[in-house]
Every structure is written in structure tokens, then in C-alpha cells.
């Protein structure tokens, strides 16, 4: 079994911990280290690695503090490292090039986002259980088999974003950026369906827009598509 702990999710900061009972991985470093410490019970002895999907601040802002206090390797693409000016003290990864961290096998894969070299992750433990992590993208060209857990962005609903723009609550330029950098509900549902299998046990929806999403609708629609338990990540756990 893979346990997923949400420390923070959304534009205010992202950080997730996955645990197979043997070793742990932290995904993203967009939450202050003091909150990460509490979520980890001040114990990083089983931490096997830190995965960074891309350079935007809500995913990487607190990476220096994490690197200072944690000895586990930090994995990111060369493009992400260059964008962060972190050319030292990281372990480079490439799309579709598998690597190991503790009890985990990880395959990064290219996603489409307004970042230098963003990736998602297919993560597998020693029992062969697979978790698919995808955030901050509007399109993924890959499909994966035998996924047991999905942690997938469902950022916004187009009708809500359009109404917010009409009312002047959403800047036109920001809306255009959202359209070309994040999963809208229908795109997220299509991705989930494309990667669904009889092994799927749960879906966790992450990175919901604070003003342009509908949590209950997202949950209902995802449950209708998958027939498995669906969880919506809170913006923060503290």
C-alpha cells in the first residue's frame, strides 16, 4: 500500500509525501520547511528523495531550506535546475529515463506547461504498486498501465473561469495562461480515463484553483468516471 499525505496543494504551495511503509518520497518543495517538519513528525530517517516537477515558486520556493536540513537527494531535470540557478547539489533526471530512490522506481515524463523542462512522475514500489503524479499541465501525451493510485491536477472549470473574467474577477492574460498551462476538468477527466485500469483504487485531485474550481463537482464527476474513492487535496494541512 502507498500512503499519500498532503502538506500543501495549490498556488499557495505544493508539497506531498508518499510512503510505502519502508521509504518515503517528498514531491515538491513549495511549503515552508517548518510545516514539512511537522507533517513528517520531525523524522526524515526514511526519506529516500525529493522530487521537483518544475521551477515555479509554488513547487520549489522552499527547496533551499529543505536541502539545508535534509540529506536525501533532490531530483529534477536539468532545465528545472538551470531555471532555479541550482546547477549544484541535485541529481539530474530526464524524461522516460528511470531512476531509483530507496524502495522506489521512478519514471519522469514530459508534460506541457510554461516552464523550462517540467515533468510528471510514474512511481512504483517494490510490490509493483504504481502511483501516477501529474500537475501543472494542459496535456500529457503518454499513457500508463496498471496504475493503482492517481494524484492528478484538476485545476479549473472553463465556465467558471469565463464568468470570473466577465465579472472582472479574472485578468484576461491570467485566464489565457491558465488555459495553456493547467488541466481543465474535462482534460483531467480524459487523462484519468485514458490511464484507468482494473487495478485503480483511488484518485486524489490536486492543485484546484481557489476561484475557478468546483470541488464537489470535480469529485462527483471523477467518481462517476472511475467508480473508485476520490479525494480532494486541501490547500494546506495546518
TrEMBL record:
ATP binds at residue 34. PANTHER family: EXODEOXYRIBONUCLEASE WALJ, METALLO-HYDROLASE YYCJ-RELATED. Transmembrane segments: none annotated. Pfam families: Lactamase_B_2. Residues 12-182 form the Metallo-beta-lactamase domain. InterPro entries: Metallo-B-lactamas (IPR001279), Protein_kinase_ATP_BS (IPR017441), RibonucZ/Hydroxyglut_hydro (IPR036866), WalJ/YycJ-like (IPR052533). Keywords: ATP-binding, Hydrolase, Nucleotide-binding. SMART domains: Lactamase_B (SM00849). GO terms for molecular function: ATP binding; hydrolase activity. PROSITE patterns: PROTEIN_KINASE_ATP. This is Metal-dependent hydrolase.
Amino acid at each position: 500500500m502507498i500512503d499519500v499525505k498532503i502538506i500543501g496543494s495549490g498556488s499557495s504551495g505544493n508539497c506531498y509525501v508518499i510512503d510505502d511503509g519502508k521509504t518515503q518520497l517528498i514531491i515538491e518543495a513549495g511549503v515552508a520547511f517548518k510545516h514539512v517538519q511537522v507533517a513528517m513528525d520531525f523524522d526524515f530517517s526514511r526519506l529516500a528523495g525529493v522530487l521537483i516537477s518544475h521551477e515555479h515558486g509554488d513547487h520549489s520556493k522552499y527547496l533551499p531550506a529543505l536541502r539545508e536540513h535534509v540529506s536525501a537527494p533532490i531530483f529534477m531535470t536539468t532545465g528545472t535546475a538551470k531555471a532555479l540557478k541550482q546547477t549544484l547539489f541535485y541529481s539530474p533526471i530526464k524524461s522516460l529515463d528511470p531512476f531509483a530512490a530507496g524502495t522506489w522506481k521512478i519514471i519522469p515524463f514530459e508534460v506541457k506547461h510554461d516552464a523550462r523542462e517540467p515533468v510528471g512522475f510514474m512511481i512504483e514500489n517494490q510490490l509493483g504498486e504504481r502511483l501516477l503524479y501529474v500537475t501543472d499541465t494542459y496535456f500529457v501525451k503518454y499513457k500508463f498501465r496498471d496504475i493503482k493510485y492517481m494524484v492528478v491536477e484538476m485545476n479549473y472549470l472553463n465556465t467558471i473561469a469565463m464568468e470570473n473574467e466577465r465579472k472582472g474577477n479574472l485578468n484576461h492574460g491570467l485566464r489565457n495562461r491558465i488555459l495553456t498551462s493547467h488541466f481543465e476538468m474535462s482534460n483531467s477527466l480524459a487523462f484519468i480515463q485514458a490511464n484507468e485500469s482494473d487495478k485503480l483504487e483511488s484518485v486524489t485531485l490536486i492543485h484546484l484553483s481557489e476561484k475557478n474550481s468546483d470541488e464537489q463537482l470535480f469529485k462527483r464527476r471523477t467518481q462517476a468516471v472511475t467508480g473508485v474513492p476520490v479525494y480532494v487535496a486541501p490547500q494546506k494541512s495546518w
